[in-house]
Design a protein that fits this description.
Strand order of the largest sheet: 4-9-12-14-15
Mean pLDDT: 92
Number of helices: 5
Distance between the termini: 42 Å
Strand content: 15-25%
Helix content: 25-40%
Shape: globular
Structural class: alpha/beta
Order of helices and strands: HEEEEEEHEEEEEEEEEHEHEH
CATH topology of the largest domain: UDP N-Acetylglucosamine Acyltransferase, domain 1
CATH superfamily of the largest domain: Hexapeptide repeat proteins
CATH class of the largest domain: Mainly Beta
CATH architecture of the largest domain: 3 Solenoid
Radius of gyration: 20 Å
Low-confidence stretches: none
Length: 206
């Protein structure tokens, strides 16, 4: 490794730590402003939280959000016409997982243990133990049906052990080759997170 490469690695590591500090500080500020954020929640910086009404938003333990989600607690589209904006609570119960670029509108309740597919629009409350998707989001199947399908596939589909370490060019090529004809699974990521060795930073106790 050249001296320049070492310097670049140090700078990249510093930037990563600063990014995580900003995310952690954001979680603190949202809590200070009255928002409930539970333990073990992944709420990335790209998740847009209604700034003026975050105190109406509650997120339970063990939830996760894909990139670029929007969580709204007010609707001011009619404000010009009737001088009023609608506000409403958003309650996302424990163990909900919200796909990337999902929009959650005011006055809804999700879960617990509900999975919402990417690019969905949650305009009405969603029942617990379900998988939902669409605009507006609707129940696609039960959580047990969804998990049963993936458990069965794990018996025959290719699997790869989770690692935080960067894969070598040879390992990447092997995975590409194995996945040329079907999907596979990375296993052990959640277990690593519970040991504090995962790659996804999550909130401490609320």
């Amino acid at each position: 490794m050249t001296p320049l490469s070492r310097v670049i690695d140090v700078l990249v590591g510093f930037r990563s730590k600063m990014r995580q500090l900003r995310v952690s500080r954001r979680w603190e500020k949202l809590r200070e402003n009255g928002m409930h954020i539970g333990e073990d929640v992944w709420l990335p910086s790209s998740t847009w939280i209604d700034p003026d009404y975050c105190f109406l938003i509650s997120i339970g333990n063990h939830c996760g959000f894909g990139e670029e989600c929007l969580i709204l607690a007010h609707d001011a589209q009619m404000d010009e016409f009737i001088d009023a904006a609608r506000i409403g609570r958003v309650v996302i119960h424990a163990s909900c997982h919200i796909g990337a670029r999902t929009v959650v509108l005011p006055g809804v309740e999700i879960g617990p243990r509900t999975i919402v597919g990417a690019n969905s629009v949650v305009s009405r409350s969603l029942p617990p133990d379900t998988v939902c998707a669409g605009a507006p989001a609707r129940v696609v199947c039960s959580l047990e049906q969804y998990l049963g399908k993936h458990r069965a596939r794990l018996e025959t589909y290719p699997t790869f052990q989770y690692t935080r370490n960067a894969l070598s060019p040879r390992e990447r090529a092997q995975i590409r080759e194995v996945l040329s004809k079907q999907d596979g699974y990375v296993v052990g990521g959640r277990t690593a997170e519970l040991r504090g060795e995962g790659g996804t930073p999550r909130t401490p106790g609320g």
